[in-house]
Amino acid sequence: MMGDFAIRAEGLSKRYRLGKTVRYNALRDVLTDAMKAPFRAFKTRSNGTTDGLIWALKDLSFEIKQGDAVGIIGRNGAGKSTLLKILSRITAPTVGCARVRGRLASLLEVGTGFHPELSGRENIFLNGAILGMRRQEIARKFDAIVAFAEIDKFVDTPVKYYSSGMYVRLAFSVAAHLEPDILLVDEVLAVGDAAFQRKCLGKMGETSREGRTVLFVSHNLGAMSALTRTCVYIHRGQLMDFGETPSVVQRYLVENSSEQRSVGGVSRYRRDPYMETPLRINRVWVNEDSTEVPILQMGAKFSIFVEVEATKKIDGAGMDVALKDIHGQRIVVLFSWDNGFALSISSGRHIIQIDIEGLKLTPGRYFADVGVNQTTVTRAYDVILDYPLFEIINQGQVPQWLDRPWGAIHWQEVEWKLR
Amino acid sequence: MQTSDLPDIEIRPDTAFRMLDARELWSYRELMYFLTWRDVKVRYKQTAIGIVWAVLQPVAMMLVFTLIFGRLAKMPSSGVPFSLFSLSGLLPWQLFSRAITESTNSLVTDQRLISRVYFPRIIVPIASVMAALVDFLIAATILFLLLVGYGLPLRVELIWMPLFMLLLILAALGVGFWLSALNVEYRDVTYTLPFLNQFWFFITPVVYPASLLPDRWRFVYALNPIAGVVEGFRWALFGIGTAPGSMLAASAVVSILLFCTGSMWFRRRERSFADAIGSGGR
Hints:
- The complex is a heterodimer.
- By secondary structure, chain A is α/β, with parallel strands linked by helices.
- Chain A is built from eight helices and 18 strands.
- In chain A, strands 5-6-7-3-8-9 form a six-stranded mixed sheet, with helices on both faces. In chain A, strands 11, 13, 14, 15, 17 and 18 form a six-stranded mixed sheet that branches. In chain A, strands 2-1-4 form a three-stranded antiparallel sheet, covered by helices on one side.
- Mean pLDDT of chain A is 81; it is low at 20-24 and 38-49.
- By secondary structure, chain B is mainly alpha-helical.
- Chain B has one domain.
- Chain B contains twelve helices and one strand, in the order E-H-H-H-H-H-H-H-H-H-H-H-H.
- Chain B has helices at 22-27, 29-43, 52-72, 82-109, 111-116, 123-149, 161-185, 188-202, 215-222, 225-238, 246-269, 273-277, and one strand spanning 8-11.
- The radius of gyration of chain B is 21 Å and the shape is globular.
- Chain B starts with 7 loop residues before the first strand and ends in a 5-residue tail after the last helix.
- Classes of the chains: A alpha/beta, B mainly alpha.
- Chains A and B meet through helix 1, helix 2, strand 4 and helix 3 of A and strand 1, helix 2, helix 5 and helix 12 of B.
């Protein structure tokens, strides 16, 4: 059948007025705007600028087949969330149109509408209804939801008494039991402990295998590769690429690092640029601070430096650094608590140094995710994603074959003997 | 699954005026129920006496009014005990006042919902009005207990009550739609609301009979739909006040007008709510 698409977008565009999207208007502003209007109209005409308007999405056209699991990647502010919001009818496009075939559920966060005063049981029904489940459907799945969340004993306790881990598990459990034809998911796995995250990824994999259409935004490129076959790559509101996940992810990582970085600056790679946080990661660099992505020799030992800035005293936080290859696959995860290091600092700027020896990576580009958390279940203070960390080259460390295809991430010097 | 069974939704830029989509509202009736239920439930959580507050609030007001306006100011009440007279005005007034207060702030309070999930936005102010209605129904029991206590008969005119209630709710919804939609963009509405409430209270015959007004002003007065409803309440309950007629007709016209214009305005603005309201934080 020709028309078996689930989502079809044609020239989808969304324009925001800068500043008006976040701040609400007071009548005063409108009145003063009206007073200024003649001048503004004149000004606009004279120099032709569009005053404070920004295209969050520009002319996006694509088609997603029923049953496909599709990832959306792109840097912060690329328009990924705007796209999901338009497709889930939360906001209207400025130009263009889209057709959605099937019952659609969007999961832009977990636990939307949870009320702290209500019990777990009550919130399951409320949240289920908000996500579009029928009351009967929720009643039927109730036991499964409680079991998946592992909160049996506390089901009649108000959720304000839940630990943050329990809260997140319950919230995700309700969402995981949705059975829409199309599921839109935005970066909801940023919370929760690792074991529960794996369980959720498994559940989502199940969802896409059941023939459901899934559209999935995540910064976890590894999860993306595991869950999706095709990917949409958006940059500054425009569709850059739409194709097989591995090649799209690779293109994204390369293009994302090709622009010169400002002396170790990480702001472009920050996951939550607008989040209020007592601790921010300011800069990340390897060996010496430089605007270029450093080039290292195979097998060389190196140090990663992370500069953080705290606005209050931080006690016993953990830092994790994950190295990724060009496919977004995580190779090594360094977790400070594993090495008995806890970050306890006063307010102000501090630099953390991580010395790494004996990590033998094959030539290529490598990227880092860096995060600082207080516990494993709360939202991180700050997270830097896909930050281009270094490039490894073979300058004769393995002299026999300088440009060979490596086909692996690690190499190891070993001894070979004929016995 | 057959493709033809699936809902097929067209997403387009905003167009002109849209009417209320009754079919869509019906399909979201369970969400409306749950939001109403949440509002009622949460309001009295962590209070010692819970839902009793719904009764206590109008009764306390009734006592104050009876003391001040009945005993001290000797306000006429057409032969009905002043306590009953004021309560019969207070109940519909408080339903209206609470409904518009809650619905005005409802979209802002639920901004996370608005910016995260799709549903017909108009459900949110409707649920606020319904929650106020639940309070009203609970408080109304005290009115009937008092009626019985004073030995007053239950009049056959009480069958008019559903009509009065309908007009009251239409008016509350209409005002709620207008104010909640405006409040998303202009928070000035929040600050205007206490004044509006106070003013509206004084132009509604809660603590005084409408008969105090000179006749030629009666029709203008009836343009306040709540005045028509309160008069209707008193007529049905005690046989005083104004029998259904031109005053009620004026109230009905204004109520329906408020409801229609309010829902049209709301529908016109609703697709920009998510952008105007912000994301409500992460």
